[in-house]
Amino acid sequence: MGASSVKKIHWQGNWAIQKTDASLLEMIFYRDVAPELQPLGVQTPNLLACDVSTRRLVIEYLPTKVQLTEASLIQALAHLAALHEVKGIMSRPPMYTCTWTLSATEQALDALRLDHPSARIMAELQSQSDYLFEPLHFLSGDSNEGNWGRNMAGQLCQFDWERFTVGHPAIDLAPMIPGMGSRDNYEAMADMYLAHRHCSSGTVPSRSELIRHIALAKSWLIVEVVNILKQRKHPAIGKYLDWYRQVLPDWLQHSHKLCNLSVL
Question: What are the residues whose beta carbons fall under 8 Å from the beta carbon of 119, sequence distance 6 or more?
């Protein structure tokens, strides 16, 4: 759903990926931030060219597509845990601003046309979400399965960093759960992730907190996806809206209990 134009090109005898109209944030990430993160276990495609004036970005081509199942999911969680452990970076880059406002929720609900109880739960979830966006950790901001690949050496790498940001780890974990998921899925994801975090750090979330915030992050992603599709007049928006209308009423009923809400 990105706004950039992406294509595979030949670059100095090898394949590469070129993005035109790349976001300034992503260009600065690859130029200034990625070199600091790679030695810490956060693997990204290597930068080949970056022209801020023309918004042209050329990065290493990752030849192997990755599905986040079993071993690759564990590797991806280790990668994200390493990112979340980073205490500071020298470059002080610009970052994507994550927020969940009532106005954004109302815009999404206008498109979704959910029943009244479901809309009330969405609004209440939004009112409980502020802690998701506290600047606790650096985040990729877009960890869904489509943004991972393996380089020629077989290393798992994450690409599409135009939403590099700060916030709660749940923001990076929620997109890795297929569909809307369930409590069992959130518990399993939390357990796998926490196995990679250093528990001596005071900023590591508790298991119960992480499970609750994964559910909140899943709710926020509904609003993000719907509003981005609307803004960009995406041709597949009807398919997304139909699917959400089918699954959200039941899912929201379970989520309001998981998040200890009192709207019903």
Answer: 109
Going by the DSSP 8-state scheme, the letter that residue 205 receives in this structure is P
The predicted structure's pLDDT at residue 137: 92
State the Cα–Cα distance between residues 136 and 4, nearest whole angstrom.
Answer: 29
Over the chain (264 residues), the average pLDDT of each successive run of 10 is: 81 95 94 94 97 95 93 96 86 86 97 96 94 93 96 96 95 96 95 85 82 96 96 94 97 86 40
Q: Could you write out the DSSP letters of every residue in 83-135?
A: HHH----TT----------HHHHHHHHHHH---HHHHHHHHHHHHT-GGGGSS
Comparing CA positions, the residue from 160, 34, 145, 162 lying closest to residue 98 is 162
CA distance 114 to 124: 14
Helical ranges in 113-206 per DSSP H: 116-127, 170-173, 183-194
pLDDT computed for residue 202 by the predictor? 54
* Residue type at position 116: H
Q: What kind of architecture, by CATH, is found in domain 64-258? A: Alpha-Beta Complex (3.90)
Domain boundaries, the chain: 64-258
Strand order in the sheet with 47-51: 5-11, 14-20, 56-60, 47-51
Query: What local confidence, expressed as pLDDT, does residue 87 receive?
Result: 84
* Burial environment of residue 209 by CB neighbours within 10 A (0 to 12, 13 to 18, 19 or more): middle
